[in-house]
Amino acid sequence: MIEIKDLHKSYKMGSNSLHVLKGINFKVDDGELVAIMGSSGSGKSTLLNILGMLDGADSGEYTLDGVPIKNLSETKAAQYRNKFLGFVFQSFNLINYKSALENVALPLYYQKVPRKERQEKAMQYLDRVGLKPWANHLPSELSGGQKQRVAIARAMAAEPKVLLADEPTGALDSKTSYEVMDLIQKINDDGNTILVVTHEEDIAHMCKRIVHLKDGVIVEDKKIEQVRAEQYV
Amino acid sequence: MFNKDRWREILEVLTTNVWRTIFTAFGVCWGIFILIVLLAAGKGLENGIKQDFGDIATNTMFMWTRATTKPYEGLPKGRSFEFKISDVQAIQDNVPNMRFISPRNQLGGFRGSNNVVRGIRTGAYNVYGDYPEIINQDPMTVTSGRFLNFNDIQEKRKVAIIGQGVKNDLYDQDEEVLGTYIKIQGVNFMVIGTYKKNDSGNGEEGQKEIFVPFTSFSQAFNRGENVGWMAITAKDGSSISQLKEKIVKVMKERHKVHPEDTRAIGYFDLYEQYNRVESLFGALKGVAYIVGIMVLLSGIIGVSNIMLIVVKERTKEIGIRRALGEQPWSIKKQILMESIFLTIISGMVGIIFGSLVIYGINSLLDSVGPVDMFMNPSVSIGVVSGALLILTISGLLAGFIPAQSAIRVRPIEALRTE
Q1: What are phi and psi of B363, to 5 degrees?
Q2: ipTM of the complex as predicted
Q3: B329/A93 CB distance under 8 A
Q4: B321 touches chain A (CB under 8 A)
């Protein structure tokens, strides 16, 4: 599904340049649930941004579902993001003047799905994350866990190939963290490919594979026995 | 373009900070208001001045004779001469594009002594000997009876058309006018009509005139073939100002006047005067547009500023939308439409207020009666649609820079957690 070869990325900070990713090689198959771990500054978020086409690499190859991702125009990148990727952020990033339902329907709007169908589909996904009764609430009226569930519903609504989650539990207490992870595991059970960036051990162990990043290189890549989040809920 | 979600979003964005939106809108509203009011005031002045010209045919010149100032062909200088009735035909034959050439004779004049008598009443009036065509050059409304016709000329009938002012002086309120006689310098004329003039330039004077057939005038008052002065109107499309040289030249030839004698024939070119007034109003309109658009411009800069702030405030939101796959063009369109919507709505409010003010001035003018040199200020539908066009364009301009900066927002920067 995802294939990366010798990926390099550096940022210019004034006159110095900061080499963040120093040659990453990495492959993710269909239906995997991968945790990317590392301390801050290890380059995990940068990697996720490049995977999410929010940022470009300096060199190296990136293929997503057989499509080479290189030198995209902004228009093309927006199209690919919409078609291939779903995002979940640490700070939820819901649009605060739109209701939960409208937030979920947003990616479908960009796919030019007709209004009625859009609403139905969005409602369906909200139902799947258990928030149907909150459909018409604004984000400010929801708790952190609920917001993240709306964000996940939004990410799933466009039926992406890959779900990218950047510290999805970073702003949540452990109980709600497990609830969110439970949801992510269930989505993975349905066959979706998911990448989770985290620095929390217990969250990482709820995935099926852990990739350790340190100073811009992969130092460890192992499959693990998945801990089900259900038992903590 | 007309999709419900986009409009809902525009309204949501503009109503989140209502007072800010209103103050911004005020700039544009004020600009278009000034533009409309200035244009209307200019139009009012124009209407007022043009009213002074009345319905008079403006493509007209008046021509009369004076003493020569140069000796020519054995004739001395200081010689007086007069136009003859045959000159009319000569001009007609030699100068193209003539519409009306009216020879005229006149009795009375400024501060003239009493020259008209009816019973025990007398008055001093201008009495003109005219051809029927004069009604096209110096328009008047015949309020009763009829104007002169060619039979009157042919048969030298002693008939007269009198002005409203003459009637008021010489007749009682309800007295029958038509068919009665008035005595002009001792000669009886039958009144066959009354008229009223529309122009306000001459005021009362214009209503105190008496028109009689040219031929009867000549005979009754002993003018023979002589013509006092002429009113000459060119056809539409050719200007009298260009033809007047030719006319004067023909007259000089016929009356043995030195070709370089500039004082022997006097004339007044109404068209030139009218043109001068016209170009004055053109300039006035130009000034109104410039001032109005300048004021509007500052309003537009205000809108542009606010849109920049809105974009800044929504940086994160724009980042999210980009991450979810919204096309850059769609974001740009959104910002542009917000800007255009804001300018057009506030511009409409400005236009409405401007119209209300104009309406107010108009009803005030109506209630106090006519005011000198100012009448019926108004703006045409053309001006209003022009203003709307200006607004749309300025909305586009105002939104352009903010929209550009909105799509320059890179999603990753917008999403970076604080």
Answers
A1: -70, -30
A2: 0.85
A3: no
A4: yes
